[in-house]
Here is the input.
Amino acid sequence: MLVLFFQRLKENLTRPRKTWEKNLLVLWFGTFMAGMGFSLVMPFMSLYIDTLGDFSPHALNLWSGLAFSATFLVTTIISPWWGRLADQKGRKIMLLRASLGMAIVLASMGLVTNVYQLVGLRLLQGVFSGYISNATALVATGTPKERSGQVLGTLATGSVTGQLLGPLVGGIIASAFGYRLTFFITGSILFLVFLLSLIFVHEEFTPIKKTDLQPAGKILKELQYPHLVIGMFITTMIIQASNNSISPIISLYIRELLHGQGNVTLISGIIASLPGVATLIAAPRMGRLGDRIGSERILAVGLLLAIFVYIPMAFVTHVWQLGILRFFIGVSDACLLPAVNALITKYSPHHAAGRIFSYNQSFQATGNVFGPMIGSSVSSFFGYRAVFLSTSLLVLANFLLVRKNTAEIKTEKQ
Here is the structure.
């Protein structure tokens, strides 16, 4: 049995691969590092800012909030412009622009001498966004439609896992090497992503003249189900807002559960990373299942699971209980964004994929901005446990929205 296993493994590793399969391998690593690059500095951002001047607690909270939100605010605004350029010039060049830009900007964060420079670079990081959305568009347009759910599910594990594991990896690197060296290491890895994308990613694309590029209004008219696609944008925003509403209070909630005992920083990093592990395991399987039974059903199941997992989080009494529930949130995440991307791919024209996925990224970034604001506001008035209950209500609203927006395609399949 063992010999047979290794023989099959060798055959799988050495077999000739199609272009879309090679692209998937490289872009999985690229999206993983891009996702990590956005979240890696989160555990120590406030601490790093504190080393750049003498701040009062109020000022430190203000600058930390600005530094966190700056990147996502710029991403929300600029993503549609990059998407239009991607449809005109190609997605590979956008990958190179984003990865090289992120490498330089993140490495430069290790050289700042004041908080103004840091916030400025965080704003610039948002300008160089778009790696994940363009990787998704490139893979989606080059993959056979019957495999799109599985392939996009696999690709989604890269960015989602990178974003969720980033805080743990960042905390470990910062503890071992210091804050500044963490930025240099991250920048170096993103430069490697640039080189891999340059050498190994292949795209068959014919440049389109600016005058021949269809306006957004005409693209919307081409959509078979415009309410579905626009609904998926809103669904993406609510998914991100729901996931990130927990971010501001998770460490504080864990400290409360531990009654101030134990290594809160390490345990918080582990708990925060559990959804990433679950997503990595479950997303390709959910993608394959979505290809068979319909991505809209997988999306609905993922939202229902999230509702029933967030509610008991408000009533846990031990950290291990929270850890188990966080793992199941990762299973829910494995259902959500891959299914959204699969539905957008199936019901959008390929020639406008760059813009379609860039619009989706704008909504995703908007969710990243509003999620922490929701969590902070609710916890300030009602306590940490109320955040999980309010998040479950947000997910319930998303579930009802998805039911409404996918009703047409369900009727068509019956």
Notes: Residues 1-6 have pLDDT under 50 and may be disordered.
